[in-house]
Give the backbone structure.
Amino acid sequence: MRPMLLRLAQLQLRNETWAEDVVAETMLAAFEGLATFDRKAQLRTWVVGILKHKIIDQFRRSQREVAIDAESDDGDETPLDELFTAAGHRASAPLDWGDPEEQLTRSQFLAVLQACLDRLPATLARAFLLREWLEFETAEVCKELQITTTNCFVMLYRARVRLRECLDVNWFGARGAAREESDG
Amino acid sequence: MAEPGFKWRIRCRDADWLMSLQRDTRLSLGARAALWVHLRYCDSCRTVRRNLELLSRGIRRL
């Protein structure tokens, strides 16, 4: 379970030392709390829940040490303009990712998703994971990152656009290509 | 990027932004109406909306 926890911590914190610390704290807390663990619950979900709390603590501690240069993200070159024509239509039709239930049962899907998160610029990944993985309210995300609400919405949008593109190419595109080959 | 002002026919570019914004905040009535109308006739944007939903659910499974 440790490598999985380490990958998740690394995704959000983007710092190996902090990730190692957070995972060590999580393992310790899980070990100590094992007696209170409800056997009906999933062990993985429970431990990841502890990890999330430890990540938030570490995130707040590190926030004081490293000022996140969110403004520099204005230079982020997410090619939004290439997605749409001058008239505002989509430059190409989006790929249909298919049945969510089916996709979510594939461990490979989650692996590709993690790889795509890895490739996101750190500031975008931080904002996006605070919002969607740690399930912060948007206002809290902006506050944690010390950025304006508008900037916050834009960062979350850019993160989603990039992840959509990355998944299109690396998961759904690859599968589509494989399907075409087997059909041919 | 802000909410486009109220108009019945928005473009995919606006719809794309609004679908993301909607996951983070409550849209104005005008924006919701415009998006609703757009999604009625735009297959591509409906696909994107489904994909966004799958993305969110995937993240929560990590």
The mean pLDDT of chain B is 89.
